[in-house]
Records
---
Amino acid sequence: MKPRHKRIALILAGLAILAIAATLVLNAFQSNLVFFFSPTQVAAGEAPKGRSFRIGGMVREGSLQRQADGVTLRFVVTDTDKDMTVAYKGILPDLFREGKGVVAQGKLGDDGVFAATEVLAKHDENYMPPEAAKAVGDAHERAAANQASAQAAARTLKQ
Amino acid sequence: MIPEVGNFALVLALCVALTQGTLPLLGAHLNRQQWVALARPAAVAQALLLAIAFGCLTTAFVQNDFSVVYVAQHSNTLLPLQYRVAAVWGGHEGSLLLWVVMLVLWTLAVALRSTQLPEAMVARVLGVLGLVSAGFLLFILFTSNPFERLLPGAAEGRDLNPLLQDPGLIIHPPMLYMGYVGFSVAFAFAIAALLSGQLDAAWARWSRPWTTAAWVFLTIGIALGSWWAYYELGWGGWWFWDPVENASFMPWLIGTALVHSLAVTEKRGSFKNWTVLLAISAFSLSLLGTFLVRSGVLTSVHAFATDPRRGIFILVFLGTVIGSSLALFAWRAPKVGLGGRFGLLSRESLLLTNNVLLVVACASVLLGTLYPLLIDALGAGKLSVGPPYFDAVFVPLMLPAVFLMGVAPCARWKHASVRELARTLRWAFVAAAVVGVGAPFLFGEWKPLVALSLLLAAWIVFSALLNLFERVQSTRAGQPFLAAVRRQPRSFFGMHLAHVGISVFIVGVTMVGAYQAEKDVKMEPGDTVSVGGYSFRFNGVREEKGPNYRALVGDIDLLKNGAAVRKMFPEKRFYVASSMPMTEAAIDTGFLRDVYVSLGEPIDKARPDAAWAVRVYYKPFVDWIWGGCVLMAMGGLLAISDRRYRIKARSAAPAPAVTTASLAQNA
């Protein structure tokens, strides 16, 4: 083979590796992107059926229930606007607390209960998982906007 | 008073770093010997000043000086002394100071150990390191000063995050940073080569030990972090594809490619541009890692603070370093030349293929790490890329790379023949196939992927042994076999030891992934649960007091076939100052398996003396994961200690005259 042919062959081999890698990456990427939804979005039916996704918000005070086997749990996650029930089997992380932020990953069942495969509460007392903070923040913003429009409506009525 | 001394030392260090980063570089360019001669003294002075600053901060921690903000935020009078010292790098400001301290230590090492190098080269290398150091010192002084005062001082400190109160914290960050920062030396050598236009085998020989040393530290640092997560987080996982982990893994992948590319540049003079590009990338990824972890974009355990100013500063710094070095590369690379030619199948081409695979693997990790940040920054929603993505991409890319690891050491430089390679390696492959197919039967269910992984692991070991045997036979010249073995260079053994480390690592990852068993159960005192052939009897929980926490300690008997093996004491700790709970797992470590118990929570919060949720694991071969990393690091050390770096360095002594001549030509 001439040097030029060799170089072309090398380049082709490199491109082949890159093409295979790109296919692998895109395939895996598509099937493994985990999207995040707030309880409000889930209530509005935006969340996918039969695909894993994440939810986040605050754990409602007094909502944690333990089944007789001791490791099957249910609790309610809220973004202060809408609530959703989460079922989980296993041991909760150290910083899982009622009234604190939480993120859970899993699938939505037909009964509307979110079956979590993973519950994340990060390791800092002051820390709120960014997704959970966003869910609650969005709900607050909506509430504020609703209040503002209600006030505006009231003002128009008075005039 | 002491913090002010530290602060002043930092300011002086910045001045010295700026001098070190400008005059020697200009001097090397304009051929002014006085300016060139400034490089070494400046490096020494900077190291002394930063040692003073670091000593001052440590003193503030030891003396519980809560009038310093950083100390008040990360320490507490109850904190034991060793953690007060380690707390120096337990937060954002201090860990940046540690970063710069590591940088000046590397600079000092280069300054002291480079007596055989041409003076102009030393001046350029130290100059580039000085500029990097100046950037970080500016960052510390303007956005993250650890010596900032709190007036009036706090009566008590907020305490160190309990997660960090562990021997792991004392050694993990320094090792990791030594690795991260160590790539700055490879980077400085690459930039110096671009500036001078002198990039040859001698240059590669100078850079090699430094690059390998950084790689060794990074390997150990990552392994320590993984081991720490395994025993401290209480989840029994050893790698989570967390962005912070990826941040340290990407420089490692590129660093590994760089170590191999440098070998080709030294032996054959090829891959020059590629080597330089890898050196720039490895350091850029180290900086990117610092940015990701330190700017607070990833809010996780490692992001201690969130401050946009810091993020912007690092981003600008990152852009300047990467942008200017790539611009320099684009401008000067054509001058460097391509180097020796090689055949389509040769050791060069095999190493190049492995290099490409490593780079592609790194790119896919980078994509998975940055994509969620990008989407978030664009306001297009929140998403995460799950570990299955990384597994699905990483494993198929690494399988051919691992296969080639067995082939490349046996292939000839310049031109190799398929038939010859096949003839040499066929028995190694047959033996590996027998082991790979047979071994899974010993451990349980036969799975094709397990068989493939074990085949590759055995393949590395057998082909390495074969390579050793062949090499000894061909250089023996009538001597006894063992004497000929002893005459082989250390770097040869270093290479194979590191490769065997990969093999051991693969065995660990495969076995624990395929055959681990876990159970989460409720246990009343007296209950027994079985997993992986072991039984655990729960005898209840008792209360204990630590220096700065109180703990509920589980009492568990580990039994095998009804016979007691040992007692295990997993803990649930509650730290007084931060009121944070922490799980301390109890682990019985063995050569072939770990048994792992951690306490969840009491079933009834009011009755911790009754039933608990308990998690038990059986983890076969898990310690091989870190054992493999230790072997890799030892291989690296063995390679650095090779005689030829010393002997040839000495024989290269007349080089300065030549370099000055070529410099004059360039000018």
---
Amino acid sequence: MDSYNIMFVILAVLIVCASFATVLAKSVLRAAAYLFFALLGVAGMYFLMGYTFLGSVQVMVYCGGIVVLYVFAILLTRGAKDKLSENTKQKIFASALLSLTGLGAFVYAILKANLLHENLFRPEPLYAPSEEATISINTIGRHMLSTDVNGYLLPFEAVSVLLLACIVAALVIARKR
Amino acid sequence: MLDLASWTSAIHTWLLGLVPEWAAILLECVVVALLIITLYAVFAIVLIYMERKVCAFFQCRIGPNRVGKWGLLQVFSDVFKMLQKEIINMRKSDMFLHDLAPFLVVTASMLTFACLPWNKGGHIIDFNVGLFFMVAVSSIGVVGILLAGLGSNSKYPMIGSMRAGAQLISYEISIGITMLTIVALSGTMQISEIVQQQADNGWNIIRGHVPAVIAFLIYLIAGNAECNRGPFDLPEGESELTAGYHTEYSGMHFGFFYLAEYLNLFIAAGIATTLFLGGWAPLHIAGLDGFNAVMDAVPGAVWFIGKTFFVIFLLMWERWTFPRLRIDHILSLEWKYLMPISLINLLLMALVVVFGLGINV
């Protein structure tokens, strides 16, 4: 195991532990704090793979944006000592069903794509990406605003329409008199 | 100009001869981290002394002058006092979040600190997306401040952290847009590239003419707001909120917030230096070759730190001159004035770049 693989294991353990802690935490605020670490671990994975732009976006949008949003939402809607509600039988049944469905879809996708093979038991070590394999921000910018086959101008603009709709909706909710 | 990259690569090859590659990289990382932490502490001490003296100067006082010559040892004695203090735990606070928050704030500011270009070849974190990474990691600090306010389970910190959150998120927008203005001028986000261009073609504030000057002024205002300082220090406004989000902290946990506040000032000034004043690039005047040769003899680190302290003086001037604003004034200043101006400024810069109007010295 070289340093690259050791780093991968550290990040993986961090993500798994933080995700479990997020789900199992009794206080909402603590769950948000654990979620922050899980998202940070995912950002670390992106950096490990050489996707520095995606990693930075993950840190900025998820760690610095979404988590802050959650904390603000918790702050503004603090009720019942921010403890979680009791688990009813209905709730447990519904969540078990949902998670089993998710697990099924996940396992099916892995089997379908033949990702398993014998790799599950004799995993190959990971290799650090070469300098050429890492995508520069110039390439991303050109693809984002080009109308070629590999261009993403239309989805990019469609997302901005979605954001505009969100802003208008927020204004409508905030300004009702 | 001295290129530190030759030194670092020489050290790397020497280490490779002694130990395997992973151990060499680990050792280098540890040494660089220790270097950053030491610099962090040293700059904090210098900045606190400077703040006291500059503040005293603006208020027609003398400032610290009892401990040591010219009060030079005052800050050291304050640091020792803080190190000895007990770290108190409030009974009904969320212990885990309360203790976690200062470390988040300090980590965010150290990561940003590591992105600064100290010299030619002397940058520590230098990605293709450098500037964006810098903004991204600095936004982790907001989470720390919010958790500090909520984890303390007390009214003053909660109000302080809410104000801080609203203010930091708002002013991050105009900081981001002013940075984009310079990225549009340079055509790259890599910090070492931005500085290298300025060393070759002249400083950005001259090269980018009017839009660069407007961006610099907006950055000075928004930078002070990002550090929770100056006329924008109401997250910790002492007359109404005792100490804002760090009211319930004591000892070194409070010390971390204090450290991060001063280092954020240094970082804000360092970014301004990198983007507008040429980073480590020496002052060149076209035509005066002898003068340029003398300026080249001064090491890049001296240039960088010197310019940064000049910008810090500008920021302190701003802080001790204007009275504190109200929260709605702060938000309307950002959303109604600074953001539209910086957006139009970005458009202006795009025009300057497209028509090739930038000055190359």
---
Amino acid sequence: MNDAWLNDLTALAGQMAPSVILLTLLGTIIAAALLFVAKRYPNEQDEVIKKINACLPQTQCAQCGHPGCRPYAMAIAAGEPINRCPPGGEATIKQLAQLLGQEIVALDSDFGEEQPLRIAKIREEECIGCTLCIQACPVDAIIGAPQLMHVVLEDVCTGCDLCLEPCPVDCIDMVDAPATQQERILPANKNYPQMVNPSPLTSSHQACIRCGFCEEKCPKNLAPQELFWQRNDSDALSLLNLNSCIECRICDRICPSDIPLTDYFINTKQRIDDEVSQRERAKIAEVRFEERTKRLEVHQTRVKTRPSRKDKSQLLATLKSKR
Amino acid sequence: MSDALAILLTALFVNNFVLVQFLGLCPFMGATQKMEAAFGMAAATTFVLTLASAASYLIETYLLSPFDLEYLRIIVFIAVIAGLVQFSELVIRATQPVLHQVLGLFIPLITTNCAVLGVALLNIRQNQGFIDSVLFGLGAALGFSLVLIVFASLRERMSQTDIPLPFQGAAINMITAGILSLAFLGFTGMN
């Protein structure tokens, strides 16, 4: 009884084996071939645009003359100047220049001036509920309904100014970002202390002589000396586990050149944190902008395919007259 | 030579894929609104169908028949054709940007069409050699292209004319396609 069952199973497996082997082989070969080609010929244009887009601040403010950050990224990839993004300012230009191997140029003032982040605020008692600003906002940061007061969501507002112009009663102000939003200012636009290896003549401490004493004493087994030399390279710092530094200041005390290493580390950590949160914000703004664009497209096709009221009444009239 | 020509012309006119065998109707209705789209679709189809008939012949003769695995034909054909087309699309994109601009959008669209699987399966059923299979695929593709372009030009003309209201849209397209199909039935006697 048991044997018969086992025999059946073996026979079944024997029958299935060729198909399974063939399909597995085929799938593997096709996948390998596709992977090979995709690796061999990467879609360079897309990659470049993605990288350029990552440098842009994703405010979607359209000050560059394009309807959003991605379109500007595409235009840059096609050869447009890189100095047309006022919200990104100097920092963005620097990043783009590095990415594209171009020279750093000053911001083109025809497109606006670089200024600290401000966000829109609606003077609520004056708002008449016309919804015009809601339609203008590229990241859907304004909520409200017809005839009802509108409010700006301050943590998603990118400060693009696009809602100011359509407001019929001029009840929107651009105000300085509240303290909770300060980390959204681009890291390079904040005034971090100068991070150059100081010369003994101008600073309280002397140059690093790479003695390595700090590395022996670090309780977290980090390499403070390496962290100090790599302090402008975020990738290297994360590899060196800067975030594990507990700021105990033992390395400061051991350093024969009296370098305030921990101060440098605290500053650097702050800068990296800001960069990360900035990037996250940019991503949120980008997603919101794309979702909005998609929604508008759907809406537009719906409006297009719907017969207009005029046509409808005309059609009814002709049908009635025929009858 | 005359044999080859016969296969080509038979696939093109007598056994026209769209109007006689009713394969590939989706692009026939969907991609014929504008002439440029029809041209792109026609070119992409020609490419994919020829490739598919060559690939399916090789698989059938050297992989499926020797191991008695004919029952896997459909799934293997689908997988291989889709993979092969994707592969060549990637290569074309990297090496022939101009060609890719013409074909680009349409290649993935046509890959999963029944006309592609149809040409592969019909080839096997007719038991032809390699050259004949490829010619059959090419003929089928040219027939498809011809019909697509004819239909697109008809539709472009129709968009200018004053069609009675109940016939507007899909209705008149169906009627036109039907009349076109009747016209192609006239080739049946040519065998």
---
Amino acid sequence: MDGTVHALKQVEPASATVALTERFPFAIVGHVDHGKSSLIGRLLHDTHSLPEGKFAELKAASDKRGGQFEWSFLLDALQAERDQGITIDTTQIFFHTAKRRYVIIDAPGHKEFLKNAISGVAQAQAAILVIDAAEGVREQTRRHALILQLLGLRQIAVAVNKVDLIDFDRVRFDAIAREITEYLAQLKLSPTNIVPVSARNGDNIAEPSANMPWYQGPTILQALDSFQSAPVATDQPLRLPVQDVFKFDERRLVVGRIESGSLRVGDRLEFAPSFKQAKVASIETWNAPTPLTAHAGQSVAITLDDELFIERGHVAVHSDRRPVLGYRASLRIFWLDNQPLKVGQRLKLKVATAKYAVEVERISAVIDVEKLQPSEASEIGRNAIAEITVRSRALMALDLAADMQRTGRGVLLREGDIVGGALVLSAEASDVDKRLVGPDHLVTRDAREAVNGHRGAVLWLTGLSGSGKSTLAMGLERLLFQRGRQAFVLDGDLLRQGVTSDLGFSPKDRAENIRRSAEVAKLLADAGQVVIVSLISPYAEDRDRARKIIGERFHEIYVKADLATCESRDPKGLYKAARSGAIKNFTGIDAPYEAPQQPELVIDTTAQPMERSLAALTAYVEPAIALQLVKDAWAI
Amino acid sequence: MSDLDALENQSIYILREAYSRLKPIAMLWSLGKDSNVMLWLARKAFLGHVPFPVVHVDTGKKFPEMYAFRERFAKTWNLNLIVRDCPPVDEIDPSLPPAARSAARKTIGLKNVLDEFKFKGIIAGIRRDEQATRAKERVFSPRAESGAWNFRDQPPEFWDHFKSDLPEGAHMRIHPLLSWTELDIWRYIAREQIPIVDLYYSRNGKRYRSLGDSDITFPIESNATSISEIILELAHTKTSERAGRAMDHEREDAFERLRAQGYM
């Protein structure tokens, strides 16, 4: 404490003003044990940023432990870290040069802790990638470079550390420089500098090294000072994701942070994806003058000239520069969860303040970190980088990461936990929802189908009792359900317990049974369902009437099996009962079955196993219910 | 945009996220400079309002100037103030060193407040530059039912996406000042003219740089009698801010243990 005032007088006055201005957060990344923490320790020492006596204290502590002093001890603030000998979480350290204040984000290199590395590095504006000169480029060197790229960092300097261990050899340094440059080039990154350093001895950290006369480039400190601050995205389209709507003092305030672009009082804003529009009446502040404009980076509160229903997740935009509105998107993701991600799984995609329930439709590729080649995979394991297609139940407003960094990315949530990061590679525009907008807000069939991701349909399974209709119907329903389709079985036996319980088995009653069943199936298909009707429906005339009622979404599927086979199966004992006369008018015994003349599909179950019949049925159904897509925009 | 504007806008964003995602929520008010800045930022975020209770977990050992400050500004700023006393020191884990044991009273006091009001969110004014274990914090930092902080397995947090779903009984600590430095705090106090307890100004060659309990907090030698002099002093100091807080220094891991158990 008594050193405080004394220390003040030792520092030249110039630093007082520069230290107050720009702050620049940067990350130090690289393979485990390549010397990240040592580099930080050295930077702090060489910029005279260590507290009085700290160096001596640590040196003493190190001697007491009986080991050699390591610069990394400085950062090992937590007891647990010293125990394990690895950096557990991200740490932030401060120092300044003559140019500006720096915040060092130390990201752990150990593979276990990728989520911590990401949490740290995402706050950085630039990075130093540390490579051990003796070991060269390693797996996590590449992985970290890839993470930098995914996180949107474009300024990277490389520190080839421990050059004392390779005798300051230029040839070996050049080989490493070439290897990392080539790798970064594949990521469309180019290092700002590649600096040979020895963190332990201080070569090329703050002062140029006398040991490497062949190196004329900048020191690490000079490389840092040459990084540029990120420009604020004011020239991009306006994106103001709504955080909340406050009702204070009779004012209704829509609040959020402008992620890109600008807005002005009087601007007409559209709240995507809703198409609702209103004008900005005012930009409200407290204890500050009320401005007429607001820009990217500002957390604002605005009032509107019209009371619209606006909620968290809407994005205020100018309607001439809308985001893509659609249900499908292809994403590049990094996966952080222990449980792998698989096709068919449901997640939440959170972009700015919007949360969309999505289903993984497809895993297009998992990226090999070494070669950066995509390869096929059925699941995405922890720490993997992959490309997937997701489909949302609700209309999404998405930007592409390539155009709009801040709103073109988001996180994946599973049960409320962040389990991955996502960049939007492409999004499929949907034009159906404009039809939803209007005075009466009709939900059209098209809109419903677009939300479901498939068309409504009636699959009319006809055939003898015991031909396998129910088994196929139930199997198909389960399969479609697992794929996220809206599917429902209308079973003849179940219908007869309710909707048609007043009817018998005379031809007239059978006709009415079919008519009612067809009407129910039509309503369900209108509601977007894939209706699987399982009915003997023996008369061609009745089935034709069903076709008329339902229209073009009717699919007649003849489940065929000869009588002997059906009778030998006799799952409900009905044939036996009919043969003994206990049941009258039983189809195939004492009532006719008129086989369809031109069904959409025939499945002969006589000889083939039920699994194969189900596969044949599924193969027919999927294209039959597929939406007619405008374009295949998620092909990568 | 200046760096102070950037910090202010970021903190407002965090406060609004917390208010939107976590209910019921409250803010801790230690009466120190940081929590006064935090309150000020809340009034900016909520247009002059503080739309949640402000909690003072009272050790009963603050400086008289701090209590006077509390009474005055709770009224001036129209705060919904909740004051709760901490349990006596003999109820605290005797294995802790004396000052840490005294500070741990606040951990239990806070736990009692959580039990009483069932807050899902607690906004606290800690900063990364204060102390090494605080440097590891998340902006949204989940706490188990016991209040414990599992610093070994923290949720990922990037691109301003914060974990906000919690299991029953757990709560979230929200840290809107995490990226601020001590210097930023003083520059912002100067810019916004935020009221502070005058113990921060030099009297008889000494001033308090950090305010805690009167028995375990010590002043530093300083002649800074105005905010601009404090700023000038801090621009050159190499001593840590919490040097005057005894509990940080008793044992290598004392503060880490305090924090893992739920201390702010």
